[in-house]
Amino acid sequence: MEQKKILICDDDYGIVNMLELMLEDLDAQVISETNSTKVGERLIQEQPDLLIVDLWMPVVTGDEIIKFIRQHDGLKHMFILCISASRNGEEVAMEAGADVFLGKPFDMDDLLDVVQQAIVHAEN
């Protein structure tokens, strides 16, 4: 079985580092991008099975990234987990096309459950 790829896109280095640590025990390759302007290129290049994306980032926002993925033939089936501390974040993320939304601060077990679901989803 080919190793799954998870791409994390968040402009907060602390969150990226925490997610990398949480996900290192999974049998998956974890790729991080803190610059939202580069994530479109990285998504096409890496073709991850799962994207974990923050909603509010400077320049390119998470919902713009989600819409880009959903309109791109080679990416539109990707599982997207959107994270945000925003009050209306869930509404914005789901309207853009996210599969799952978790509010910050999120429960580690909830996040790992979603990642596990996404990996199973990617195998089907």
Automatic annotation (TrEMBL):
Residues 5-119 form the Response regulatory domain. The keyword Transport does not apply. The keyword Phosphoprotein applies. It comes from Sphingobacterium bambusae. Keywords: Phosphoprotein. InterPro entries: Bact_response_regulator (IPR050595), CheY-like_superfamily (IPR011006), Sig_transdc_resp-reg_receiver (IPR001789). The modification 4-aspartylphosphate is found at residue 54. Pfam families: Response_reg. This is Response regulator.
